[in-house]
Specification:
With 258 residues, the chain is an all-alpha fold. The chain has a single domain, classed as Glycolipid transfer protein, GLTP, CATH 1.10.3520.10. Helix content is 68%, strand content 0%. Helix 2 runs antiparallel to helix 3, helix 4 packs antiparallel against helix 6 and helix 6 runs antiparallel to helix 7. It is globular. The N and C termini lie far apart (121 Å).
Length: 258
């Protein structure tokens, strides 16, 4: 007896044929989704050239706040000391940052520029080897036979740095801040006691014409959102505070705080 093979029933084979076609297609779709997801992640993880991962745009190497933060950070590389060339470089960038922000900032930066020129003349003069670090300068100038004023000049810059740190930190931290009142309070606490009555009155008038918070944030980080600018300014103020604290400790150890 011969068995007769029946032709395959299309209803029976159709699911198998569909499965055999669908499996490669499904694999292709998964591979495509994986590729697109990876490309999207790569796109989001890219940072502007020169920026470190997680670094704010405003703190990049081609932006003034970033150019200021870097030398100040380098000035702290030696534990228990202050690298003066990097400190002065950071201060020069700080002057450039503050100068466009208003009349009182301009007054403060002009005064700071004069002090910076004094210290730079020492660090580039015949006794430059004694002006590479705070400790070397202090050892050199505390010799009674020396008459240089590097330490006194540094104390004046130290106070101005503290005022800038408090003022910028407040602008970064306080929402809808009254910038004039905030920076006036910092001035009265830090710089005012060391100024004449006439200078204090002029400063109080200048605070009345201070630019608003939004304007300052735009000047510091042009093109960035207010939130990003505040975060960048907060980090700037944090670096100034670190430099201030290091210098404060060094001056206190030498009995140079007045």
């Amino acid at each position: 007896m011969k068995l007769k093979l029946l032709p395959p029933d299309s209803k029976v084979w159709a699911p198998r044929q569909w499965l055999s076609c669908a499996l490669p297609f499904t694999i292709f779709i998964f591979m495509l989704l994986f590729y697109l997801t990876r490309e999207k992640l790569n796109l989001f993880s890219q940072v502007e050239p020169g920026l470190k991962s997680g670094e704010l745009h405003c703190l990049g190497p081609d932006k003034l706040p970033g150019q200021m933060v870097r030398p100040f950070r380098k000035s702290l590389t030696t534990e228990g000391d202050l690298q003066l060339p990097q400190f002065l470089d950071g201060w020069r960038k700080l002057v450039m940052l503050l100068d466009p922000l208003g009349t009182l900032f301009t007054f403060a930066t002009q005064e700071a520029s004069e002090k910076l020129s004094v210290l730079e003349s020492y660090s580039q003069g015949p006794y430059s080897t004694h002006y590479h670090t705070f400790s070397a300068m202090a050892d050199w100038e505390q010799d009674p036979s020396k008459h240089s004023s590097g330490l006194h000049t540094l104390v004046l810059l130290h106070r101005a740095l503290h005022w800038a740190q408090l003022c910028l930190g407040g602008i970064a931290r306080v929402q809808n801040a009254n910038v004039g009142a905030l920076c006036r309070e910092a001035y009265q606490s830090v710089l005012g006691p060391h100024h004449t009555w006439l200078i204090r009155q002029a400063a109080n008038l200048a605070f009345l014409a201070f630019p608003g918070q939004s304007q300052i944030l735009e000047l510091v980080c042009p093109g960035d959102s207010e939130q990003e600018a505040q975060e960048a300014l907060s980090r700037v103020a944090g670096m100034l505070e670190a430099v201030y604290n290091r210098t404060q400790g060094l001056l206190a150890e030498r009995g140079l705080l007045t």
